[in-house]
Amino acid sequence: MMRAHFPYTVVCVIIAFLCCSHAEKALAADANLLKFDLGKAAAKNATMTPIQDRTGPAMKIGIKGKQEGWAGVELPAPGGTWDLSKYCFVVAQVRSLGTKPVAVRLRLENANTANCVTDGIDIDPRWGWTWTKVPIRRPADTVKIKMFGMAEYPWGRPYEYRMLLPDGQDLSNYDHWWFATYPWGRPYAKQEAGVDPAKVSKLAVLVTDPKDCTFEIRTIRAAGVAPTPEMLADPAKFFPCIDEFGQYIHADWPGKIHEPADLKKALAAEEKDLKANPGPQEWNQYGGWKNGPSLKATGFFRTEKYKGKWWLVDPEGKLFFSHGIANVVPSYQPLWKVPPPAHSIGQTTIENRQHWFKGLPALEAEFGWCVGNNYTQRKTGYYPEGSIWHCFDFPGANNSRKYGGQGDWAENFAANTHSRFRSWGMNTLGFYTSPAIKAKKKTPYVAFIWMHHLVSFVWAKNAKGETVGHTYDAWEKDFAGMLNMHCTQEFGPLKDDPWCIGVILDADHMGGPVMNLGDDEIALGIGAIMMPPAEGANPNHKKVFVEDLKAKYGAVEKLNATWGTKFASWDELLNNRYALPQGLDLSKAHDDLATIQLKIQEAYFKAVRECLKQTVPNHLYLGYISSYQTQSSIKAAAKYCDVVSYRLNWPSPAGLKLPAGIDVPVMAVEFGFSALDRGLLAGTLPDQAARAAAYRNYVLGALKHPQFVGCHWAQYRDDPASGQAATEGNYNIGFVDLADTPYAEMVRAAREVGKTMYRTRLGAE
Fold it and tell me: Is pTM, for the whole model, over 0.85?
């Protein structure tokens, strides 16, 4: 996903109103909606226009011209204050009505004090309606419990005053990768001291560094269940906070498991539901449109543009739209090779946190095979780089109890997963799916491998010379050989499998050909200038760059005249390293830097395609997994990939546009939304109704987009309530919870769109 970065301008929030989605009419009577006296609202450097939304009042805020300070609206609490002590967040829906992103912030304040909390997002107009939030962060002196290893905490995010871990490491204000990936989250910045949640006097909706913009806001409500002040002040009353099923103790919700027998009861109830809902009757065995048009059948999946829209075509020649879920795994297991043990979704760290978990010694004794280690290759929060941490796999223990003992439970889990997918109107197992589940050959799947631990990188730099991303050096002497060896080993056994839709190689944060943020279209070029020519990890692209410049300019003096540099020879440029050359004018060198960037990326995609067409010639090359696409990376991928894949965590893909002249099939291989009502402390949407509505909206947006051929939900199962070991995520991001109970609201939404998705796509304008 491409996400605009703005300076962290302070912004604050406003609003009052109800919900938008047709599935969320119940919000009109929601007691958690905040009440506002709009007659007392104060606008600063802005206009405020109440609008009647279908389900209740909403507000449009407009700002004209450059304004000094902040601009927006302040809304006082009726009667003087709101008591928000039962909640963790205030959330709202927002959308930009202009052509550029708007940095909107929500701010909570106490009266007559400096206490406030501010947070928000930069709203991209391509998204449509999205959710944002502000944490109701408690003042630091009222919280005596110490926690670490999670994305969000019972009191909000980490404090500015620097909470220290048992080993003395600093937890505060680290850049958590999830917040860079999801548009409604942001990296931890300097945090205000917090507010007294029982005496919140004002909510503001603000834009900092305001310029011309117009946006709307609605559905402002409190969300998330907070511990009592007594719990936060006394660790003995808060811990343990995780039960023997991995669930958060200090909240309750529909479907929560309270005793082992509940697992079997849930399975029996679901079996009845699956029998009553066997899945779309007009699908063939692959999930293609059996009753739809017949195209050429090749025995494998392929792409074709049919009646103005791109489609996948299944092995029987039927139209196929890939509707599925990624990360389908039963328990802890290494899904890719890293030294030492790999990590998995569902595993949580127990080291230095044993007192968090109820009955942990008994759990470790009964489920010893669920005890393991997690290896971290990079520092994430409190995890030192290269460290190994003691972990427990709650999903493995829960699934073992639910599906029967350590011996046969995984087989039963796999069979139930395939039944679920068909019943839910889903026809694809996304990347990171367990090989044992894919091997059943009942649901088409996507294959995936990493290359990051095998080959060299090209670093991307910004105008300051800071590293902002990387890609592979396809000219590195061992690249083709390592690529072929790895693909033959991992993909070779799949080459004749008709159930394999296609293969994905790599992801952006570990080697994919994209940059995070910065000077996106020239960042690899800047990196090439600063890298050594014949030593270190990336020797070859520098030589290619200099040879191309020689061919274009002839004499180095002509290059200097264009770039503003003072190189005495081409060898001086070749040997320049670790610093930007004196006098370099990036605006004048832009075309050359952009040219080598595109060439570097094309070399990568070309090499991968050539390898895959030898290794798995029958399968589609689905590109790589990327959040941060640039114009050059899209152009390069479109030239060599059968499908351009995205990690597209937008509220809707409807607004996605490829560069001019590019018309290729696109797939969202990972998207997701997290709610705050089921014992998970991180997220933005208020509840499962809002999450299901967001899911439905996303899939419908993909179905109606002429270039999308599929979309996959990010994760089969929730993160652990105590934080995923590898990423610290504690998000309600699953279709099933940690005890393998499906979310009924999500299942209904999936069935609704799955049942009619082919007619919807074919008939969409």
Answer: yes
